[in-house]
Amino acid sequence: MTASNKNKTKHVSYKKWGYLFLIPFFLVYGVFSFIPMISTFYYSFFENYMSGLKEIGPTFVGFDNYIKLFTEGDLLKYFENTIILWVLGFVPQIVISLILAAWFTDTRLKLKCSGFFKTVIYMPNLIMASSFAMLFFALFSNNGPINLILMNAGIIKEPFHFMSSTAGARGLIALMNFLMWYGNTTILLMAGMMGIDTALFEAAEVDGATPSQVFSKITMPLLKPILAYVIITSLIGGLQMFDLPQILTNGKGGPDRTTMTLIMYLNNHLYSKNYGMAGALSVILFLVTGTLSIWVFKAITGQREK
Amino acid sequence: MKKKVLSIMLAASVMATMLAGCGGTDASTQTEGKASTQAENASSSLEEGKVVNIYCWNDEFKSRYEAYAKDLEEKHGVTVNFVIVANENNAYQNNLDAALQAQESAASDDKVDIFLVEADYASKYTKSEYALDVVGDVGLTADDLSQQYQYTKDIVTVDGVQKGTTWQATPGLFAYRRSIAKEVLGTDDPAMVQEKLSDWAKFDEVASKMKDAGYFMLSGYDDSFRAFSNNVSTPWVEANKIVVDDNIMNWVKQTKTYTDKGYNNKTTLWAPEWSADQGPDGKVFGFFYSTWGINFTLLGNSLADAEGEKAVGNGIFGDYAVCEGPQAYYWGGTWICAAKGTDNISFIKDMMYRLTCDAETMKKITLDTQDYTNNEAAMNEIASSDYSSDFLGGQNHIALFAEAAKKIDMSNISDYDQGLNEALQQTMHEYFEGNVDEQTALENFYQSAIEKYPELTK
């Protein structure tokens, strides 16, 4: 065997291994994600649920489930709830995360104990969402510690029923989402910022740019790909918001169904084993998520190419 | 070349072990399990299964069983396994449904042998094939069942076949605090108090007196619900259409008034605040409770020290008394059903007989626990005796129950009672709290009712 021959075979086999190692992913994805997704599309055209212990259907009903969802249910209301809850949590989250990330990566600022703070702000994310929601439920219950503190401090006279007011319940869910995710977002944005060439910052400094100018003219534009990633993942997560409101409101989405998210609505259908309707709702959710993601992606990354 | 072959083989073996790790183990254990149970089935088709699985939603039945029928375990050589899933949001029923539907393919030790049902949804199961005939299949005789209250048999009887049996009858009464009655009404004598509460107008009058004296008439929104919902003129569902009866709306009206005027403490059923209202620090005059509620729930909540002795001096033990209240009603009740496909029929027969037919045991249960058991002769005997309950300040409440039990009318129950009662209470809470108007609350009720039961219409 000659040396050149050896080199050639090595080169080819690496490529093969690449594909080989990808097989498990595609296999698992196909079995656990792709096939279920296709079957969801399929079942959404059937009437199929349990009446007592009797199974009704499956009977093919065409687009009936979709028509029912739009005419009889309050689908748009739940969509609106979901988006409001997401925006309420995401806006403060991205603002705080950007500020924190900028501070942590700023070489001139040289924050002390930044490692410690980075760990601490990530901590809430380590708590399970369900226990986090239970904790808030207990803290903010009508006779809970928060009400006691507020009453003892003389700020309010009667206990404030957080879970019975739309602003209270939505505010709590947004606050929890913010607390759980701002650490994660900070870390992601920091990674993005540290990837920016420091020479650019130094050059700006030499040219006499102020910190705010550096941030808006250098950091932000170069951060766009990461920002797009953060917004899209957060949007998808937001549309699929379930555990926090479900547990905080005990599955009722109260008050007056103003914290009922799309997935909670889906869960209600699954609870009564209404597979057809749940399938139709999932398909709508899939389309909405897909469209929104593409739109956000285009809007954020498109400008750079122009 | 050798290296290449070696590395491919290595990669392949890594892959193989990975994939084997994913799915292989599961499959192999499953087949093993099946093989062994099949063998067991074959060898023990005439013998009893070793494990009796009992599906229920709280530990009330468990404590009855352990106190009065645990010795049957040894006699039949079985172990009893309780599968407890809470009732709320149909969780118990959904879990039970899934288990029953998997009954045929389940391993014999995993099969449901006994399941418990409540009046609110009993008919769902008795109409199905999953509940066995207690006479034809289980082997109890008509004579065994003769002393049970007729209504307890009617509720689980489909086409003349009785498919469940219960150890308790559940007439409802109004339990009130003697100390508060004395202070506000001037008497704590059950007969005198009953006179002041004999209809809803008088009940409202007393409520306003309680408010003036700094007490609450009722604890929360749902307290009087059963007294209204049991006196409806139509069942919840007629020909798949949801019917909200006028009497249900009377409950809504009353509760809204009570909430606005401060006659209740704005709690919800089963909430910690609601339970606390029944305890030593409670400022609530009374609670609508049926039999199990008095000896099981109210007694437990009235104690200052839950672990302490159940006697006068512990919390407000002895401060409660009962009277009929404004309207006769019943609440709850637990029926024992044998599941189709069980391999423990003889155990089930013995247990059902012991807990629901045997007059001696049932009398003992009543004397021990103050529960009202399902044996007319035994109950009448206690009712006319000088029996008295320490918890109720020496009152013979069994006499009141015996009267109330005769009035129970189960003609308006439907398969949907639990889900719809729960949905209505939940959606109406928001109306009571003033977040939505009555119409919106009703709309929300229909919405969640149809989510729970897709076949229903408004």
TrEMBL record, chain A:
Membrane topology: Multi-pass membrane protein
Cellular location(s): Cell membrane
Domain ABC transmembrane type-1 residues, every copy: 79-296
Transmembrane helix found in the keyword field: yes
Regions that span the bilayer: 20-45, 83-104, 116-140, 160-183, 226-242, 275-297
Listed GO biological process terms: transmembrane transport
One Pfam family matching this protein: BPD_transp_1
Annotated GO CC locations: plasma membrane
PROSITE patterns: ABC_TM1
Swiss-Prot/TrEMBL keywords: Cell membrane, Membrane, Transmembrane, Transmembrane helix, Transport
Family to which this protein belongs: Belongs to the binding-protein-dependent transport system permease family.
Identification of the protein by name: Sugar ABC transporter permease
Lineage of the species this protein comes from: Bacteria, Bacillati, Bacillota, Clostridia, Lachnospirales
TrEMBL record, chain B:
Entry-linked PANTHER family: ARABINOSE-BINDING PROTEIN-RELATED (PTHR43649), POLYGALACTURONAN_RHAMNOGALACTURONAN-BINDING PROTEIN YTCQ (PTHR43649:SF33)
Sorted UniProt keywords: Signal
Keyword Signal appears in the UniProt entry: yes
Signal peptide annotation: 1-20
Keyword Signal: yes
Record protein name field: Carbohydrate ABC transporter substrate-binding protein
